[in-house]
Amino acid sequence: GQDDLKQQLCKKHLLTVAMATRRSPIKVPCENEDLPDKENAPDSDEDTLRATADGYRNQGNEAFKKGDFTNAIHFYTEGIKMNCNEKELKAKLYNNRATAHFKLGNHQDSLRDAEAAIESNPTFLKAIVRGATACVELKRFEEAITWCDKGLAVSFEGIFNI
Q1: How many helices (DSSP H) and strands (DSSP E) are in the chain?
Q2: Where are the TPR repeats (predicted)?
C-alpha cells in the first residue's frame, strides 16, 4: 500500500545519498568521552557551558567546511564533553560529529552518534537520515528501514529536503 511506497521512496533516496557520499574508511581514534560531572566542570554555570559547547560546535563547523573532518570531530567531541542541558545543541553536536565520521567512512561511529543525537532530540530529521544512511553503508538494510520509518513519522516531505 501507501506505506510500502513511502518506504521504497525513502530507501531509494537514502541509497542515492549514501552512494553519492561514499568514501573509503579513515579511522579516527575516538577520544575518551567520559562526560564530566557538572560539579567538577571548571565553570558549572549552564550559560557558560552552553556558550562553550556552541563555540566548539562553530569551530567544528569551520573545520568541516574546510574538509578537515578529523579536527571537526575533535571540536564536536569537546562540545559534547561540556555536557550542557540544552538538548537541541547536544543533538546538533552529535549529528555534526556523525556527519564528519560518515565523510571519513566511519559508518559505525556515524551510526552511534546519530543514535545519541536522536536520544537528545527524537524528531531531529537530519540525525534520522544520517542514521539511515549509515545503516545502508553498513549493509544493515532492515535497520535502515526502521530509521526511515522514524523519519517518515516526523515528516514525509522533509526526508527529501535533507
Answers
A1: 8, 0
A2: 53-86, 91-124
